[in-house]
Write a structure and sequence with these properties.
The chain is mainly α. The protein has helices at 16-20, 51-113, 116-129, 135-139, 150-156, 171-184, 192-210, 214-226, 238-264, 266-272, 278-304; strands spanning 143-144, 147-148.
Amino acid sequence: MTHEAAGVPSRNDDDPQDEARPDAGEPGGGEPGLGAPGDDESGASGAEQRPEARLAQAVRAAEQALIEFEIAVETFRVEVENFSRLHHQRLGPMYARLDELDAQIAEARAAKTGDPEDLRRAAEARSVVMPMPGVDELFHDWMDSEGLSPEASAMLTDQRVRPPKRVRPTDEARKLYRDLVRKAHPDLAQDEAERVRRDEFIARVNAAYGRGDEALLNELAEEWAAGPAAPRQELSEADELYARLDWLTRRKELLTEWAQELEESAIGAMLRMAPDDPDQLLEQIAEQLLGEVSQREAELAALVQ
């Protein structure tokens, strides 16, 4: 599953098809003595398989396809979120400086001309720079444009504040993340208790991946390997299998909508400008903003002379 399948730009990921190939000894693995790829576990040919057995194979294939799709969407979501946060942290002061210079330029022009329209524009430019009265004093950086800041959320949940250092986690962190999701995904649970255990574990995996915490991902991989193996139950009832396929289809549709929203967002559109190196894009934008600041400063200097 690739980002293109989700409507998401490609990230040059390692080929998931290679990692998702069945191992020797599994159905389709082709190990001598276990039957041809079209045979079921009893050795019967594909033409003699029970309808429920073929349906079970379709369900398993759909589950794996959905997991790959979710991995593609989640990796892109992390990049969008990290890019947004780093964009604000690194470039926010430059945007603020540009707003201040625009206000000073408008005020200097209005002072020279006395024109009512220039005075109105100056007041409007200054209002962009001026904070809402009392808001900064009240919240003390606890809130930003998206609500509670990451630092505030971390404090309220007793978690350490560890913002990302880059847009995209390292290749090793991405590989660890994919491996863990493919092994521990809640969709592979066969009962509610197992689903709850997997949900909790994957939430920790997602949090570690979002921070690019490679060491923690390695710890989580060891924890999963040492944990209890999920019980494997063979699906045999046709109505249960059809219901499962229906759920997988609806889940796929939901993920498609989510991926489209990410891609069409302002940050998603910016990431599409530099799909191979989103971190470098931040540096390019910073250079552009520095140039705009220099131009504004020269314009202001000419006005106040």
